[in-house]
């Protein structure tokens, strides 16, 4: 796969071309933390029958370079803007999972002309969920005994339990033969992005050798005031058992035009476990006519 030699980072990317000339805008898909562009492979391969699809590795992930700093969603949005310029993509539709969705919201604020439509897949925003304490997770009662069995100590009121869990599981992947421990096997079923030892090693290097942790736990810079400046057609796609569902509910107060759809019996990583459901939602939304959203202003601002 080619590497884009951008100023701030070198980004690994993949352009998947449809077999016939596309009539729809390009589609850019952004993965979340502790994974890579491979997160979207199954979904992208299906959509590439009609769309020109761009996948890429965020800085510090996959085959992209790992600078010492620059891991806020705002900085990564600038990386994406630079990549789009490098590839001469002037406007596109965008899909972002988890942290990738926060990157796309920043992109829309930085370069609004490049964003045609926006799909937020199980995105957590700190404006609405400043803490990610596991005691509020729908699956915490199932997770807690598995973690205890593996010696992972995460308190029920840990404010950034999601990042703590990703890191703890990554360390386990480097210490335990994959799937050799029953509890680890069950955790991998719930968090499939962490099952790769190579991905785990990359995440640990990122956390241990850069400023990523400090930047990730900091405020994401997406206040309600800023978000309301972004008026684009939007789809919010959330798992009905996801720990980030509270963000999806609150997004509708900021974007009344946002279409919110819930995926049944799904946690945070449903694009991996239910790709056909995601494909169906994306095809429907991305191929429908665009109706400009009605501006929404908060009179208290």
Helix and strand arrangement:
Blueprint: E1 3-5, E2 10-16, E3 27-30, H1 41-47, E4 53-56, H2 73-86, E5 92-97, H3 99-110, E6 115-121, H4 140-149, H5 161-175, H6 182-190, H7 197-209, H8 212-217, H9 224-227, E7 234-239, H10 245-254, E8 259-263, H11 270-273, H12 275-286
Parallel strand pairs: 3-4, 3-5, 5-6, 6-7, 7-8
Antiparallel strand pairs: 1-2, 2-4
Q: What descriptors fit this protein?
A:
301 residues; alpha/beta; 12 helices; 39% helix
User: Count of helices?
Assistant: 12
User: What's the SSE pattern?
Assistant: EEEHEHEHEHHHHHHEHEHH
Q: Share of helix among residues?
A: 25-40%
Detail the poorly predicted runs: 295-301
Query: Strand count, sense and closure of the main sheet?
Result: 8 strands, mixed
Tell me what the structure shows.
The chain has 301 residues and is α/β, with parallel strands linked by helices. The protein has helices at residues 41-47, 73-86, 99-110, 140-149, 161-175, 182-190, 197-209, 212-217, 224-227, 245-254, 270-273, 275-286; strands spanning 3-5, 10-16, 27-30, 53-56, 92-97, 115-121, 234-239, 259-263. An eight-stranded mixed sheet has the order 1-2-4-3-5-6-7-8, with helices on both faces. Strand 3 (27-30), helix 1 (41-47) and strand 4 (53-56) form a beta-alpha-beta unit. Helix 1 packs across helix 12 and helix 2 (73-86) packs across helix 3. The chain starts with a strand and ends in a 15-residue tail after the last helix. The relative contact order is 0.14. The model is unreliable at 295-301 (pLDDT under 50).
């Amino acid at each position: 796969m080619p590497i884009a030699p951008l100023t701030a980072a070198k980004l690994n990317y993949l352009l998947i071309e449809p077999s016939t000339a596309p009539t729809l805008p390009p589609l850019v898909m952004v993965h979340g933390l502790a994974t890579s562009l491979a997160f979207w492979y199954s979904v992208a391969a299906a959509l590439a029958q009609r769309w020109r699809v761009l996948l890429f590795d965020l800085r510090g992930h996959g085959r992209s370079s790992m600078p010492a700093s620059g891991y806020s969603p705002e900085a990564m949005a600038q990386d994406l803007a630079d990549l789009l310029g490098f590839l001469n993509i002037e406007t596109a539709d965008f899909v972002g999972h988890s942290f990738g969705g926060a990157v796309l919201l920043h992109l829309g604020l930085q370069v609004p002309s490049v964003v045609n439509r926006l799909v937020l897949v199980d995105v957590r925003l700190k404006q609405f969920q400043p803490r990610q304490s596991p005691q509020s997770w729908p699956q915490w009662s199932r997770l807690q005994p598995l973690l205890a069995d593996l010696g992972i100590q995460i308190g029920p009121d840990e404010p950034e339990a999601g990042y703590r869990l990703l890191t703890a599981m990554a360390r386990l992947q480097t210490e335990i033969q994959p799937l050799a421990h029953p509890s680890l096997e069950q955790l991998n079923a719930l968090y499939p992005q962490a099952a790769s030892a190579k991905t785990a090693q990359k995440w640990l290097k990122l956390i241990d050798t850069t400023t990523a942790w400090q930047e990730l736990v900091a405020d994401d810079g997406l206040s309600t005031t800023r978000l309301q400046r972004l008026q684009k057609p939007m789809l919010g796609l959330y798992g009905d058992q996801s720990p980030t569902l509270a963000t999806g509910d609150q997004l509708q107060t900021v974007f009344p035009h946002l279409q919110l759809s819930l995926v049944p019996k799904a946690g945070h990583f449903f694009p991996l476990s239910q790709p056909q459901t995601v494909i169906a939602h994306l095809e429907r939304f991305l191929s429908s006519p665009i109706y400009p959203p009605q501006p929404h202003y908060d009179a208290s601002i």
